[in-house]
Amino acid sequence: MRRATGDTLDASTLHALLKLRAEVFIAEQQSPWLDIDGRDLDPSTIHFWLPDGAPGSGPGRDVVATVRLTAEGPGLARIGRVCAAPSARGQGLIGLLMAAALDELGERACLLEAQSHLEPMYAKYGFAREGDEFVEDGIPHVPMRRPARD
User: Fold this and answer.
1) Coiled-coil intervals in this record (predicted)?
2) First to last CA, the chain
3) Domain residues for 102?
């Protein structure tokens, strides 16, 4: 598993992260949206990813799974850009990345916008629905929150 803050990402890693996200969110899900939101290179953003051949493999040029953690204000963070390449699904890779992101959170509360069919998966990590379902880029989503830990 790899981890880097936005300000320490090298160009080839950023390219690999954006390539995977475009393959999953734009090409596979046929959802044309502006993924590049200005937060990927922010020093407070933390990227977690697994290179091809992961876990525990060498550097790898391709990324097979990724999760992004962003700061949303005092005591609050957001998990987003959660995806895995089709060839890497069903191997528990997202679980590894989610565990790393949640460990990084510490006691902070966390938000995410889950695709509705993935709500049960995120519930396993302590997230609960917080609001009504909405459609974003043609895909139903639900807002979720994991409360701060005491």
Assistant:
1) none
2) 28
3) 2-109
What's the domain count of the chain? 1
In whole angstroms, what is the distance from residue 112 CA to residue 12 CA?
27
Residue 50 lies in a domain: yes
DSSP, collapsed to helix, strand or coil, labels residue 139 as strand
122 located within any domain: no
How many CA atoms, within 13 angstroms, populate the side-chain half-sphere of residue 122?
26
Specify the pTM. 0.91
**Would you state the structure tokens that stand for residue 52, as one six-digit string?**
């091809």
Q: Which of 48, 94, 52 is nearest to 68 (CA)?
A: 48
Within a domain: 99: yes
Query: How far is residue 125's CA from residue 14's CA, in Å, rounded to a whole number?
Result: 27
Is residue 113 a contact partner of residue 80, using CB atoms and an 8 Å limit? yes
Task: Give residue 54's pLDDT band: very low, low, confident or very high (50, 70, 90).
Answer: low
Residue 90 lies in a domain: yes
Looking at every residue in the chain, the average pLDDT score rounds to 91
Looking at residue 141, its pLDDT comes to 95
Q: What is the CATH number of the domain that holds 8?
A: 3.40.630.30
